[in-house]
């Protein structure tokens, strides 16, 4: 047993790998850090309030907050860490909107503008026949000259190329756009998407679900109320979706906690969210380049831990290595994350904004990241319905 003073203040920071500690030692550490009441609530499965979220956000010991989050993670998933074999296709960077944080979007006619068509998607996916690929993740700009059928064609192209692939496509921004331009009823649009082969929706476009940040950084795109309302429609029409939070730009601590609250409220209502993914902002080549800084490991781990603690009705917290970088994503597994996303293969949104992460992490590297942090890799499909413990 360590000397008593080892449990005080900053020395607590020397216990980052929380799961190695005995429960009584953890309790002592958390109580000494002034987190006794929150610990009691977390252990009892009680919901944390906005004020408790703020207390955790501002608490001086990241390790203590991480330890609490890791408790929840261990209770829900033990040592299991999920990943998949996936491919991102950002099918066009042409976008009618200008969001200040985005380095990916191009205007029509710009040299760097590109637009893929159905045949391109089909060919790309056909290249993965016979491979382990189980998911294609497709998001992109809102192309001003493309109509409703274009979106359905993106899904059709993927299914033609690789019929068994799960198509996870379109953030709430694209879904809202389709609902507006289709001239069809809500249920007809979702029926069309289902018939084309859509499996579920990714979590992008939420940014920060607070009007101040919306008006200051992404005012041309749907705002917080519409993002949530569209998610509700998606869930009511039988699709699961994810949720994200883009942090590390102009948002303030209380706005991050409000974001969690708003997601938690909708999840209580629909239960349709599958996974939450905190997205670390990369500022390069964006309109916030001069303003924004690259997020720190300290903030990244804090956001992972807060997500796990505040989003008590979300089954999974994903450490997206493309934005976190692989070493931080690996460390995040001890701070509340139970999923490390997938192989990704090709990605432009974050790479255009300067991420230092590679384009691709092969399966063996994901397995190595998970195992070398003391966790058990589990290969999953998009909906976590097919799980396979990785042997050997
Ligand atoms: O919607 C835009 C964000 C999102 C930047 O659901 C930026 O499984 C960082 O949503 N720096 C797209 N982020 C990515 C996304 C996602 C990724 C992985 C998995 C899932 C999932 C979803 O990226 C956008 C926006 O919120 N973004 N610009 C930037 N400069």
Low-pLDDT regions: 1-18
Task: Please trace the helix and strand order, writing H or E for each element.
Answer: HHHHEEHEHEHHEHHEHEHEHHEHHEE
The best one-word shape is globular
Helix content: 40-55%
Q: State the name of the first-level CATH class of the largest domain.
A: Alpha Beta
Describe the model.
The structure is a single chain. By secondary structure, the protein is α/β, with parallel strands linked by helices. The protein folds into 2 domains: 75 residues, no CATH class; 310 residues, Aldolase class I (TIM Barrel), CATH 3.20.20. The protein is built from 16 helices and 11 strands. The strands form 3 sheets. It has a 4-stranded mixed β-sheet. The two termini are 35 Å apart. Ligand V47 binds next to strand 6, strand 7 and helix 15. The site of ligand V47 has 24 residues, from strand 6, strand 7 and helix 15.
